[in-house]
């Protein structure tokens, strides 16, 4: 006879790293349609021939719409590549499928010049850097230095393929001030267009956070209902506080107060940090100041530290791809619910 208790214990002992299987039964992903389109950008005339043109600097959106969708569109905004939203580090379920299974429309965004929107209006260049793999390891907070993993890191450290996949899945990234403007220009047009619906929540990673905040200051409609940044490097500030704008791609960005106040109109904003990001890190300090200024003008912005709030330890710079991403996603469930963003389109509750 099989001793169920022993089986359970054995199972538990071999799965200490990864999250336990979801408590709700896995439902199939049922879609009504998928597709993609580009948006924003310019049509440039040929410098000499008036009858020739170039269409360039648009962004690209790929969408997945559930059969019975909830009303909120989750726009997944990467810094490194769309891949980080597609799978967990060990190949397990990523945010894209997790939230499709929960019936949220999912949108994958490539800003102008990156990924599938790489037709630029200007010459661009790519210079191979032979230190990139080492730099990725530390920047993504897998550990303090290359191949020195944090002891509790939520990454399958013994899986060489997982590391190889993580470091190779990158696009060329343009971390310049001009590129932040370029991305947010196109994204603001997309937000106001109604093509992503009228309840948009941006989920961002790293440099995508600053771009989503700038987008919000540029959009004129009320379609942007939430921003959840995972380890955003770079923040936006109003011009009535003594903050000097940065000259690079990681801010600070300073905008007129009237535009900054648009962030205070967004129903919910969360700036999320992993436990290996110390309180005195420049971006953590900036996130606290930015949140307090948003709230000063009537907004609802919070700094969330995964380690303190949920005891989530060993988070990387990309916590939604971590082995613990089920628990990180549960936090997003709560955020959507708290802000009334989890409702179904037609009012039906299909849960
Ligand atoms: C544009 O004009 C040039 C010069 O007159 C001509 O060679 C070219 O074929 C034209 N292109 C189109 C698309 O009509
Ligand atoms: C290792 O990671 C790769 C890439 O994510 C994945 O395809 C593979 O299944 C993983 N292997 C194990 C044993 O988890
Ligand atoms: C919002 O309105 C301003 C003022 O009319 C305009 O300059 C800007 O282009 C608009 N933004 C978008 C995204 O259309
Ligand atoms: C503004 O900040 C600068 C640099 O931090 C400082 O030198 C200056 O005294 C500040 N001005 C005010 C009015 O606080
Ligand atoms: C942050 O605090 C730690 C611990 O007190 C200290 O060792 C480190 O130098 C500080 N870093 C910065 C950037 O101030």
UniProtKB/TrEMBL annotation:
CDD domains: Esterase_713_like-3. GO terms for molecular function: hydrolase activity. The keyword Aminoacyl-tRNA synthetase does not apply. Residues 1-18 form the signal peptide. The keyword Thylakoid does not apply. Keywords: Hydrolase, Signal. Transmembrane segments: none annotated. This is Alpha/beta-hydrolase. It comes from Westerdykella ornata.
């Amino acid at each position: 006879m099989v001793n169920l208790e022993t089986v359970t214990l054995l199972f538990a002992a071999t799965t200490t790293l990864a999250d336990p299987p979801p408590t709700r039964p896995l439902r199939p992903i049922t879609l009504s349609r998928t597709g993609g389109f580009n948006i924003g950008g310019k049509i440039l005339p040929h410098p000499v021939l008036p009858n020739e043109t170039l269409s360039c600097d648009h962004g690209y959106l790929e969408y997945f719409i559930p059969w019975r969708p909830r009303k909120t569109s989750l726009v997944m905004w990467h810094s490194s590549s769309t891949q980080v939203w597609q799978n967990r580090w060990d190949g397990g379920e990523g945010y894209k499928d997790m939230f499709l299974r929960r019936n949220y429309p999912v949108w994958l965004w490539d800003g102008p010049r990156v990924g599938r929107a790489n037709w630029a209006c200007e010459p661009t260049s790519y210079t191979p850097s032979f230190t990139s793999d080492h730099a990725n390891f530390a920047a993504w907070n897998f550990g303090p230095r290359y191949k020195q993993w944090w002891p509790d890191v939520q990454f399958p450290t013994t899986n060489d393929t997982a590391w190889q996949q993580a470091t190779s899945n990158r696009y060329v990234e343009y971390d310049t001030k001009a590129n932040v403007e370029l991305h947010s220009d196109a994204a603001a047009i997309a937000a106001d267009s109604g093509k992503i619906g009228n309840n948009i929540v941006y989920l961002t990673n790293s440099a995508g956070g600053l771009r989503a905040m700038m987008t919000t200051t540029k959009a004129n409609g009320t379609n942007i209902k939430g921003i959840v940044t995972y380890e955003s490097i770079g923040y936006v500030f109003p011009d009535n506080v003594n903050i000097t704008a940065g000259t690079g791609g990681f801010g600070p960005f300073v905008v007129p107060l009237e535009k900054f106040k648009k962030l205070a109109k967004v129903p919910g904003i969360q700036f999320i940090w992993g436990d290996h990001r110390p309180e005195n890190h420049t971006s953590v300090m900036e996130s606290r100041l930015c949140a307090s200024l948003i709230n000063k003008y009537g907004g609802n912005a919070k700094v969330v530290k995964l380690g303190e709030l949920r005891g989530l330890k060993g988070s990387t710079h990309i916590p939604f791809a971590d082995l613990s991403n089920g628990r990180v996603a549960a936090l997003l469930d709560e955020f959507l619910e708290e802000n009334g963003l989890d409702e179904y389109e037609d009012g039906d509750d299909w849960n």
